[in-house]
Design a protein that fits this description.
Elements: H1 7-22, H2 25-44, H3 49-60, H4 66-78, H5 84-97, H6 100-112, H7 119-132, H8 135-147, H9 154-166, H10 170-178, H11 187-199, H12 203-216, H13 223-236, H14 239-252, H15 257-269, H16 273-282, H17 288-300, H18 304-316, H19 325-338, H20 341-354, H21 360-372, H22 376-384, H23 391-403, H24 407-420, H25 426-437, H26 443-458, H27 467-479, H28 483-492, H29 498-510, H30 514-527, H31 533-546, H32 549-563, H33 571-587, H34 591-600, H35 606-618, H36 622-634, H37 641-654, H38 657-671, H39 677-689, H40 693-706, H41 711-728, H42 731-744, H43 749-761, H44 765-777, E1 786-791, E2 794-799, H45 808-825, H46 840-848, H47 851-862, E3 870-874, H48 880-893, E4 897-900, E5 905-909, E6 912-913
Parallel strand pairs: 3-4
Antiparallel strand pairs: 1-2, 1-3, 4-5, 5-6
Helix pairs in contact: 1-3, 2-4, 3-4, 3-5, 4-5, 5-6, 5-7, 7-8, 7-9, 8-9, 9-10, 9-11, 10-11, 11-12, 11-13, 12-13, 13-14, 13-15, 15-16, 15-17, 16-17, 17-18, 17-19, 18-19, 19-20, 19-21, 21-22, 21-23, 22-23, 23-24, 23-25, 24-25, 25-26, 25-27, 27-28, 27-29, 28-29, 29-30, 29-31, 30-31, ...
Length: 919
């Protein structure tokens, strides 16, 4: 037993050992050198050697300096008699310092001498073993604690719970907790088991434990308990439960700063930024964690400007609060979302002044920031200057190049990463697969994508491919129109999310498999997945591609029920749906409905304006398209390449050469947008159909020079010129264009057809016959012209001279009646358009049963006057004879006839067409 300490001497002890705390190693050495001379004096005052050691070792290690631990070890070695407490004190000291090997070495020596450490020392050893991840050592210590009677010690049990949870044995941690009687469960054990479940992300279980603890009523929650429970509520999204816990905190009168901080974080994660802000302002003593919580809350809710404002306010408060790395990580993320380069540079300067720029996480955030601000060169400089790079550094640089569509450099960085020995993670593979998808027409990118797919298959783990990587592969194959490969990926994805379903639905829609796209929609409903705005946008786009107004209106009803009720989605989601509706109605020929949606859209972006301008262009409303473009510029919306493509289409459909030339030049001169192959094709079509063939050919040659590496691009330009020559019967230039096309693509059947028709229209029948024979010899067949119309929830398809439709008798009777009446009104069949060497009567018979005439006749029979417009679709360009016939038919029947051919819409009303006879 230690002798009781006299009061006077006890007061002197802190003074004796206090210099060792305040001064450095010199004072420690002084104490150590004089310790032996003082030892007798201490013992005379009633102190044992062990008590003197415990006091000195605790003071020596308090600054956690390595030299002082050495002196403490020497002091232990010099003690004449070492008891359990002396050994335990130094073991605890080594554990706190992080010297794990020395702590366990002392433990082994101590056990060898027949002694066992105290419960506190044993708990320290258990905690150390958990940080090392040595589960075997952990279990040995557990067994020893049970054998030596410390198994019931609360501190040891708490350490065992934390140890097992960190080593992956959550069930073992729970078993240790449950083996303790209810009355022995103190707050330390409750907090430890909650911490174990938090470590494994089992948020709901934490809430259940808290309810259990409160219901037992044995112990009261502490500040640490409330912090853990509130954090669990925020991570689990349990808003109501978190509000109840908040109420209990208020009732208990707890106002510790760490509790306030956890509540700010909770409300921020749940999206209640106003509540978080109110609590933040009420914190009496805000520390750096308080400011970080509020800044992070604003960053998570995409309120980057507020986050930066809080940071500036933080720098001005008294007493001064020093920002740390967590502060800057949230700030850099917020500014990256805003793409505000100047703010980013301002924060960068603050970080340099505080010396935090060498932190790898912060440097990674710099790379992301500058990449999103289009300063990818600066991001690369920062990346190259890093002393050490982790996988996130490589991913940040890869993402920077991928976001800035620099696929070549993205692949170069990926190769360097592989050579450096850094193992790519799922995020790496997702980024590089997305990079391959940017150029959907590039053969090289397709091959690279397949190579990466092969690499993924070779390194596949027992856990399988992650969902993000599977979705990226699915997106890649969809973009390359490799729908069979996409289906294989889709079928192999076990836990599909909304992205998986949407990507497959979009793949079917892009490849014309609209029924399969709708089946995916039905599968989504069966699986119980909620329909998001992207799903419905894809479905509406599919309806537009299918030209099914009836189906599109049905999905519009679904949209109205889901998204225009009380639970209105985010504005971006609503805008995406409205844009899809505008596009769908335009493509289905209902430009009035498209205009109504456009006018009702409160906040319009560039896609809204472009969709409406495109609709006007397809409907031959060039003047309206130009007016929309002026309004768009007035409202400060910057046009993109698709906007200009829509304007050029409007010019081409209206023969507006002057306006077309202006918009073509304005792209680059006013907006810095380089014309693509599609813009060149529109201009060539406009010039050719306006008779300006010299300018058209010159533009083709310029395009060939510009797009020389791209085989398909050159082909497309010549094909457009050939089409213009065919329409205007320009034989020589048409033959030249056809020759160039067949040199590049000898199997293009459309070119043979146009060339044969060009020869025939010029009276060169022998040349036309030779071209058709060459086509037959190659086994090429002309695309069959067909027209279709929707009636009574069915699609009715017709070909020229169709004899298989169930109503063929009634249809031909109606057609004969229309032909007779139209002729009486002045219609004359254009037999010169029949490019076959047959007599006049046969030519009239051929013209008389074209597919679009049959479709219109069917529509007049089955679509009553109350059903409105007769809507007919055709896969080829409508011929001049049918165009003339439909004007007479619309006047005769007093019905509007809407015909969509392969190029545009024609609305026939009262004997005239919306195209003004220019198409």
């Amino acid at each position: 037993m230690e002798t009781a300490c006299p009061v006077a001497t006890f007061k002197l002890l802190p003074c004796l050992f206090l210099p060792s705390i305040k001064s450095g190693t010199t004072s420690s050495r002084f104490l150590h050198s004089n310790l032996r001379s003082k030892q007798l004096e201490f013992q005379n005052h009633g102190f044992s050697s062990q008590f003197i050691f415990r006091c000195s070792s605790s003071q020596l290690i308090s600054p956690c300096e390595h030299e002082k631990l050495k002196y403490a070890q020497q002091l232990l070695d010099n003690l004449p008699k070492r008891d359990v407490n002396s050994w335990s004190a130094l073991i605890v000291a080594y554990c706190r310092r992080g010297n794990f090997a020395q702590a366990f070495g002392l433990f082994q020596i101590m056990v060898g001498e027949g002694l066992l450490p105290s419960g506190f020392a044993l708990a320290s050893l258990i905690k150390v073993s958990s940080s090392l991840g040595e589960i075997g050592l952990c279990k040995q210590l557990h067994g020893r604690s049970v054998r030596t009677g410390f198994g019931l010690d609360s501190g040891v049990r708490a350490a065992l719970i934390i140890m097992y949870s960190r080593c992956g044995g959550l069930d073992d941690a729970q078993r240790v907790f449950e083996e303790t009687s209810v009355l022995a469960l103190d707050i330390l054990l409750w907090n430890s088991i909650m911490a174990a479940y938090i470590f494994h992300g089992c948020w709901v279980q934490v809430l259940r434990l808290f309810c259990k603890m409160v219901s037992f009523g044995v112990v009261a929650p502490t500040e640490l308990t409330y912090v853990s429970v509130v954090n669990a509520c925020g991570s689990a999204g349990e808003e109501k439960y978190g509000a109840m816990v908040h109420g209990r905190i208020v009732k208990d009168g707890l106002e510790a700063t760490n509790i306030w901080n956890s509540l700010v974080t909770f409300y921020g994660k749940c999206g209640h930024l106003q509540h978080a802000s109110q609590l933040f302002e009420r914190i009496p003593r805000k520390d750096v964690v308080s400011w970080n919580a509020m800044i992070a809350a604003n960053e998570q809710r995409v309120e980057g400007e507020n986050a930066v404002g809080l940071f500036r306010r933080m720098l001005k408060v008294e007493p001064c609060v020093q920002p740390n790395r967590v502060t800057f990580l949230s700030l850099l993320s917020a500014v990256s979302g805003l793409s505000y380069l100047n703010w980013g540079r301002e924060i960068h300067a603050h970080i340099i002044r505080l010396g935090l720029e060498i932190d790898t996480s912060i440097t990674n955030s710099f790379i992301t920031l500058y990449s999103r601000c289009r300063e990818v060169g600066t991001a690369r400089e920062i990346f190259e200057g890093m002393l050490s790079r982790d996988v996130i550094s490589w991913n940040s640089m890869l993402a920077g190049y991928e976001q800035n569509e620099q696929q070549g450099r993205c692949f170069d960085i990926f190769k360097r990463m592989m050579l450096s020995g850094i193992e790519p993670d799922s995020h790496t593979l997702t980024i590089i697969l997305n990079a391959t998808s940017h150029d959907s027409s590039g053969f090289v990118c397709c091959q690279r994508g397949k190579e990466i797919h092969g690499y993924i298959l070779r390194r596949i783990t027992p856990g399988g491919v992650s969902l993000s990587v599977s979705n990226a592969m699915l997106k890649m194959y969809v973009k390359f129109n490799l729908i069979a490969d996409a289906e294989k990926i889709f079928k192999g994805v076990k836990n599909r999310d909304s992205y998986s379903w949407n990507a497959m639905m979009d793949g079917y829609s892009r490849n014309g498999r609209f029924e399969d796209a709708v089946m995916i929609y039905l599968d989504i409903l069966k699986q119980g997945f909620p329909l998001d705005h992207l799903s419905l946008s894809i479905l509406l786009t599919s309806c537009g591609r299918l030209v099914s107004l009836q189906l599109g209106k049905q999905f519009h009803t679904v949209v109205a029920k889901l998204f225009f009720g009380q639970d209105c989605p985010h504005q971006e989601s609503l805008l995406s749906i409205n844009n899809a509706l505008i596009s769908m109605y335009s493509k289905c020929g209902s430009i009035k409905d498209a205009a109504q949606v456009f006018l009702k859209t409160e906040r319009k972006d560039v896609f809204s304006w472009t969709a409406m301008i495109t609709g006007c262009a397809h409907h031959g409303m060039a003047t309206e398209a130009f007016q929309l473009f002026k309004r768009m510029k007035t409202e400060g919306i910057k046009p993109n390449k698709v906007t200009f493509l829509a304007l050029l289409m409007a010019c081409a459909h209206g023969g507006r050469v002057q306006e077309g030339s202006y918009y073509f030049d304005s792209m680059f001169n006013d907006y810095g947008l380089s014309p693509s192959i599609e813009h060149y094709a529109c201009m060539i079509d406009l010039l050719g159909r306006s008779g300006q063939f010299d300018r058209a050919k010159s533009l083709v040659e310029s395009g060939i020079t510009l797009f020389k590496p791209y085989h398909d691009a050159i082909l497309n330009l010549w094909k457009v010129l050939l089409g213009a020559c065919h329409a205007s019967k320009q034989l020589d230039l048409g033959v030249e264009a056809a020759t160039r096309i067949l040199e590049l693509e000898p199997e293009d059947e459309a070119t043979y057809i146009l060339l044969a028709n060009l020869y025939a229209s010029s009276g060169l029948w022998e040349d036309a016959i030779k071209v058709r024979k060459a086509m037959r010899d190659r086994g090429l067949r002309k695309e069959v012209g067909c027209s279709w119309i929707d009636a009574e929830n069915r699609r009715h398809v017709f070909v020229a001279g169709d004899v298989i439709h169930p109503q063929r008798k009634e249809i031909y009777e109606k057609l004969a009646q229309l032909n007779f009446s139209c002729r009486r009104m002045g219609y004359t069949p254009m037999t010169e358009l029949v490019l076959h060497d047959v007599d006049e009567t046969e030519k009239q018979a051929i013209l008389g049963c074209h597919s679009e005439k049959l479709a219109v006749s069917f529509g007049l029979l089955n679509c009553g006057v109350g059903n409105g417009v007769i809507r007919v679709m055709k896969n080829l360009r409508v011929c001049e004879d049918c165009h003339s016939w439909m004007k007479f038919a619309s006047l005769l029947e007093q019905r509007e006839i809407l015909l969509r051919d392969s190029q545009r819409f024609h609305l026939f009303r009262d004997g005239s067409c919306s195209c003004g006879d220019y198409w």
